Amino acid sequence: MSEKFKAILFDLDGTLRVNLPPDGETFAECAKGMGVEPSHEDRIRAERWEHFYFANSPQIKDDAKKFDGDDKGFWVNFTQRRLVALGVHRNRAVELARNISDCMEANYKPENALSGGIHDLLKSLKDNGYVLGVVSNRGEPFHDELESLGLKPYFDFTLAGGEVDSYKPDPGIFEHALKLAGTSAHETIYIGDNYFADVVGSLRAGLTPVLYDPSLLFPEAECAVIRSFEELHELLIA
Predict the structure, then answer these.
(1) How many domains does the chain contain in total?
(2) Which of 20, 39, 116, 199 has its CA 20 to 30 A from that of 193?
(3) For the chain, first and last CA: distance in Å?
(4) Cα(43)–Cα(24) distance, rounded to whole angstroms?
(5) Measured on CA atoms in the order 59, 61, 66, 72, is the torsion positive or negative?
(6) Same domain? 61 vs 177
(7) For residues 62 and 83, what is the distance between their CA atoms, to the nearest angstrom?
(8) Is the preceding omega at residue 171 within 30 degrees of 0, hence cis?
(9) d(CA 234, CA 238)
């Protein structure tokens, strides 16, 4: 697989960098304390919805405009949407959203961590001559965070959506990334955890996607799927 590719680009949040514990665990505890105990199937459905929502969806665009400057209102509204995705009746979701949002704010204090095996993988890819980049839907550059995570030396460039006013799954952000990489789409792999942003977007731009999906939320993905970066190492280097 590796012979025809010259560049490997990564998503940042949820791929290289993760929150520990995942926010779903704290959310489930907050919801349980208020009488909401979704099934495993409900939680999977809601997690898939969250991936769609945060993939620059029409809903998040509308919410960002509606709650511009009102972070609390945004997250209460998001909590309401999340409860509906879990199968809670809309009226009940409206009643619970503020209290659950308050519970999350008080109790969710995640650690900023790296996905397992990242350093070994990136060193190996760098040693094998790949151009490496990070492409994120963040609004601002994130060089300082990469440096604090110890990842900056591995990468040839980074690109935030806000720098070019283009966000995944818009193919435009990938086209900007290809210019920075100096490679064509068919020579470039894109690795991310969000099916709707990362797989759909990179396919639209002609790149080869790899979905990082530790929980197998998207078994139907029309691309290579890995559950750990050891698997990616085997896929690319072996």
Answers:
(1) 2
(2) 39
(3) 9
(4) 8
(5) positive
(6) no
(7) 18
(8) no
(9) 5
pLDDT tens, 88-119? 999 999 999 999 999 999 999 999 999 999 99
Pairing of strands 17-20, 111-114: antiparallel
Residue 49 to residue 17: CA distance in whole angstroms: 21
Q: Is residue 69 part of a domain?
A: yes
- Please name the residue that has the structure tokens 């604090």: 148
Q: Helix, strand, coil proportions of the chain in percent (round to 5)?
A: 50, 15, 35
Strand partners, 131: 7
| Helices 71-85, 58-66: crossing angle, 10 deg rounding | 150
| CA gap 189, 202 in Å, rounded | 9
Query: What is the pTM assigned to this prediction?
Result: 0.93
Q: Tell me the average pLDDT of the chain.
A: 95
Place of tokens 């709707």: 196
pLDDT for 52-95, tens place per residue? 999 999 999 999 999 999 999 999 999 999 999 999 999 999 99
CATH at residue 136? 3.40.50.1000
